[in-house]
Amino acid sequence: MSDKSRTVLDLKGLLCPMPVVKLALAMKTIPVGAIIEATASDPGVVADIPAWARSSGNELVTLDKVADKEFRFVVKRLK
Amino acid sequence: MSRSDPTKPKRLAIIASKGSLDWAYPPFILGSTAAAMGWEVGIFFTFFGLSLLKPKLNMSVTPLGNPAMPMKMPFGPKWFQNIVWPIPVFMMSIPGFQWLATTLMKMTFKNSNVATVEELRDICIQFGARLIACQMTMDVFGFKPEEFIPSAEVAGAAAFLEYAGDADVTLYV
């Protein structure tokens, strides 16, 4: 169950606006309630992913800086 | 249908009036991002912006029109790349300088892995953004609808204003 509802997305190397765009495209492919775990290198995601989640009506579960240019976040599709 | 309806998605309306490489990015970056956020997006292409609806894009940067544009080299060691070359404005009018500036900027974008304008335009289309060509300037500059990408629609100022009148964000680029 947990494997099926979790999608891993690699956004490393992408610059604005592509992390948000690729996340939104991936979101369309998963069912409501499912989760995406993404990794990105663009520091812009710290501001942009929460803004995207608020505007698109989805849930940002976590967002962490794990290394100098490595960010991990988890989002849940709500609608 | 009221825009005060909170369940209604937000709307972004952009006028894209420039056809150079540096001006081509903002409408497509903002359009694709807004569409990714679930907004309705309409971009109205007028004057030199019309060429952004051609299937194959071939844009230039015009340093002459941007006299304070910093010139940096997208190759070589880091210290070399960090140099801002003080180019006198008159040199920007020398034949070949625009080609050089365009080549360097394309190289800079490519090295940084910035998405191309075509990619961003495709994403706008994929998300259902409306790309509207201005009827009047098409007629003036001699563009035919069949010269544009198939998803482009043609409309006039009143049609765009009706759309933009219900927009939450309106930008002129």
Give a written overview of the molecule.
With 79 residues, chain A is of the alpha+beta class. Chain A has a single domain (6-76), classed as TusA-like domain (Translation Initiation Factor IF3). Chain A contains two helices and four strands; from the N terminus they run E-H-E-H-E-E. Chain A has a four-stranded mixed sheet, covered by helices on one side. Chain B has 173 residues and is an alpha/beta fold. Chain B has two domains: 11-59 and 116-172, Hypothetical Protein Ychn, Chain: A (3-Layer(aba) Sandwich); 63-112, no CATH class. Chain B has helices spanning 21-36, 78-81, 97-112, 117-126, 135-141, 157-165; strands spanning 11-16, 40-45, 130-134, 152-155, 169-172. In chain B, helix 1 links the parallel strand 1 and strand 2. The mean pLDDT of chain B is 93.
Oligomer: heterodimer
> Percent helix among the residues of chain B?
25-40%
Radius of gyration of chain B, in Å, reads 18 Å
Structural class of chain A: alpha+beta
Mean pLDDT value of chain A? 94
Record the strand order, biggest sheet of chain A.
Answer: 1-2-4-3
Based on the coordinates given, report the CATH architecture of the largest domain in chain B. Answer: 3-Layer(aba) Sandwich
Q: Biggest sheet of chain A, open or closed, and with what strands and sense?
A: 4 strands, mixed
Rg of chain A, please?
11 Å
Write down the overall geometry of chain A: globular
Strand content of chain B: 5-15%
Secondary structure class of chain B reads: alpha/beta
